[in-house]
Amino acid sequence: MVSPATRGRTAQSEPDYVARAETLAEGFAVRAAAHDRDASFPFENFRELSEAGLLSLTVPAALGGAGVGARYIARVLGIIGKADPSTALVLSMHYVNHLVMSRSPNWPARLSRKLGREAVEGISLVNALRVEPELGSPARGGLPATIARRTETGWRLTGHKIYSTGAPILKWYLVWARTDEAEPRVGQFLVPAGLPGTRIVETWDHHGLRASGSHDVIFDDVVIPLDSEIDVRRPADWGGPDVTQAMVHTVFVAAIYDGVARAARDWLVSFLKQRVPASLGAPLATLARAQEILGAIEARLSVNARLISSFAGDFDDGIALSAAESNVIKLTVTNNAAAAVEDALSLTGNHGLSRANPLERHYRDVLCGRVHTPQDDSTRIGLGRVALGL
Fold first, then answer.
1. Where's the Acyl-CoA dehydrogenase/oxidase N-terminal domain (predicted)?
2. Are 95 and 137 in the same domain?
3. Which of 45, 274, 304, 380 has fewest C-beta within 10 Å?
4. What would the pLDDT profile of 237-259 be if each residue is shown by its tens digit?
């Protein structure tokens, strides 16, 4: 439960940070099209985020961060996601991991303090590297092929990670690996970026979120200290993901793609007001069909706003929630967002698909929401099994 003192401090901090995010988002939105076209990483966005104190929002106040909660972070990510979802996605993973550090008893205090202070002092981002070519996402089970071999002087890490979001700028990797012990254990190892034997292979050439730098990272006998082991257990002891991680990840992802849909909605409103076909002699906004479809978009976005705010607020207030419920939020919001952009396209014809306009980019970006763990089929199967008592 959030204490009255914490509530008071957060309430005072929120408007300042929201205003900073809104100011930065204006520049991010201007640069987003070029980064999308070139698939270039937006380093300048993270420099500005650091200078504005926005990289340390989920770092505890005791370490110099803002220590704000999920509801507030969802607002910030929605603002940044509306401007440049690639930047927002990298930022969200960084936020999630710092929230987990501050709440998980399995994180060594020395390391969580170190990473927290670095996030306050400069451009120091962290993300979890979990997905592999053969394994896919570990959320669906299976042992990673990445191996950590214990020696007298340290762990030696060898493996290949894909879809490593933010790879060009990350300072820290949380690498999902298994040990080479007779009975393997599985978990995370904290690895500084740039160590000998580490290589980033620029494989990311995607339909959407082209500026997220989600490249491959390869580890070839990389040496890390013995105390880099974060939370390594027998496979049978991993009953499920970290509850904090699972819940905030889904709602943060939802907020990003809701932001993309809002960017599409704003462009559509402008288009409908300005477009005057000769055959009509009036703006498209005067057509009942346009008004109805725009109204349907507004309805979807209203539902999204309520779901994100309510769930994140309950999480901050310590109300008992389930990972299944957060999965439903992610499924509903991301599908509403995709449907909203599809509705916008239905009104704009060739204009919406032209690369001269941002709507086609918003469409490519919003479709990526369905790819993130948990995927829709996993969420629906899980809900169906519960309903059937299986």
1. 24-94
2. no
3. 274
4. 876 666 788 889 999 999 999 99
Whole-prediction pTM value? Answer: 0.93
**56 in helix, strand or coil?**
helix
Same domain flag for 250 and 362: yes
Q: Are 324 and 382 in contact (CB under 8 A)?
A: yes
Same domain, residue pair 286 and 161:
no
Claim to verify: residue 299 and residue 372 sit in the same structural domain? yes
Residue found under tokens 């990298």:
90
CATH number at residue 256: 1.20.140.10
Indicate the DSSP class of residue 168: T
Whether 261 and 327 share a structural domain? yes
Count the helix, strand and coil residues of the chain and give each as a percent rounded to the nearest 5: 55, 15, 30
Residues 6 or more apart whose Cβ sits within 8 Å of residue 90 = 46, 125, 127, 165, 166, 169, 212, 213
* Distance between CA atoms of residues 311 and 70, nearest Å: 9
- Based on C-alpha coordinates, what's the Rg of the chain? 22
Instruction: Please spell the DSSP secondary structure of 100-123, one letter per residue.
Output: HHHH-TTS-HHHHHHHHHHHHHS-
Shared domain check, 384 and 247: yes
Instruction: Give the range of the structural domain holding residue 79, as residue numbers without chain letter.
Output: 4-123
| pLDDT at 85 exceeding the cut of 80 | yes
pLDDT at 264 over 90: yes
Helix, strand, or coil (residue 185): coil
Helix axes 243-274, 323-348, angle to 10 degrees: 20
Same domain assignment for residues 256 and 384: yes
Q: In the prediction, which pLDDT does 15 show?
A: 52
CATH number of the domain bearing residue 149: 2.40.110.10
Task: Give burial (CB, 10 Å; 0-12/13-18/19+) of 315.
Answer: buried
Q: Judge contact between 138 and 130, C-beta under 8 A.
A: yes
